[in-house]
Amino acid sequence: MAVYIAPAAMGLGDLVVALPVVQSAIAHGEKVYLVIRLKEHLPLAQRISGLSGVILEWQLDPTRLKTNDVFYDLRDHYLQKRYWWGSRQFIQAYPGYKINDILSIICSDLGLEVDFDKLTILQYNKRSEVRNSVLFIPGSAIDAKCWSHDAWLKLADQLQSQGTAVGVIGEPENSWAVSELLTAGLHHHATPTIADALDLLSSCRAVVSVDTGLMHLAVHQSIPTVGIFRRDPVYVRNFPNFQSVITPKQCSDACYQREAQSFHHHRPLAGPHFRPANWSCQTVDGGHCLSSISAASVMEALEQVLNVGTPV
């Protein structure tokens, strides 16, 4: 018998938050195959101990599985098909629900017992050059999630004034947020693959990140992490090594309508060329919704999560 598991949605963060499902099945002695929706995720899948194999979603034909094989598609559920998580409709129907609550419902309905409070770190190669560094992850596939250039630099100044090294993770060729910080003189740690990012994030002192998949990867690896979020975030996770800083500013109707145009939860498959639709904050009265988050508030959250310590 083989078990095939696909994440609830399409991004890197969706894969990372679903790792407890995969790792739980492996721990129960199942022959587990991970179904991934983007080829870029393959190097990360190869770091999952005990995984029997990886298959691209568009290459899987569930009707041709062996009689005793099981395919758990976490995306094939009413919570995914009916709602865009974080939309006003979802918040009204499921007030206060976060990603682990959502995944718990999906897994329960599928008959899967998963402890989402337990994280099992992935294999990684130690990178000693970042042992004492705080790594910034400023870039996102969605511009509206990006924090301001000036705020990042103020945070870097505060850390460096204390003698803490700062580095930037991300692709400057694909992200203006990353490129601007490198132009300002912050040190870049290249990550040609997600596996390279995994190694660096697992080896550093702490991470400060916008709401993106690499942030979840740092959390999964038990690294002290601060996440910077827009209002009413679904992907906040309750772990000792994680602190969230959430803007108090509500998105404008124009901003919400632009986001609604990007919804892709109804798409049946990612496909080999899938990319999430990008969009920028549409707020015109008072600036970007994340502008209300100060460097001082992020620094305070970072100090709090560092005081908790890194779980062993």
Q: How would you summarize the topology of this molecule?
A:
Blueprint: E1 2-6, H1 12-17, H2 19-27, E2 31-36, H3 42-45, E3 53-56, E4 70-73, H4 78-81, H5 88-93, H6 99-109, E5 133-137, H7 149-161, E6 165-169, H8 176-183, E7 187-189, H9 194-203, E8 206-210, H10 213-220, E9 225-229, E10 242-246, H11 253-260, H12 295-308
Parallel strand pairs: 1-2, 1-4, 2-3, 5-6, 5-8, 6-7, 8-9, 9-10
Keywords:
single chain; 312 residues; alpha/beta; 2 domains; six-stranded parallel beta sheet; 12 helices; 10 strands
Description:
The protein is α/β, with parallel strands linked by helices and 312 residues long. It has two domains: 2-109; 128-308, Glycogen Phosphorylase B (Rossmann fold, 3-Layer(aba) Sandwich). The protein is built from twelve helices and ten strands. The protein has helices spanning 12-17, 19-27, 42-45, 78-81, 88-93, 99-109, 149-161, 176-183, 194-203, 213-220, 253-260, 295-308, and strands at 2-6, 31-36, 53-56, 70-73, 133-137, 165-169, 187-189, 206-210, 225-229, 242-246. The strands form two sheets. Strands 7-6-5-8-9-10 form a six-stranded parallel beta sheet, sandwiched between helices. Strand 8 (206-210), helix 10 (213-220) and strand 9 (225-229) form a beta-alpha-beta unit. Helix 7 (149-161) crosses helix 12. The longest helix is centred in the C-terminal third of the chain and has 14 residues, at 295-308. The two termini are 34 Å apart.
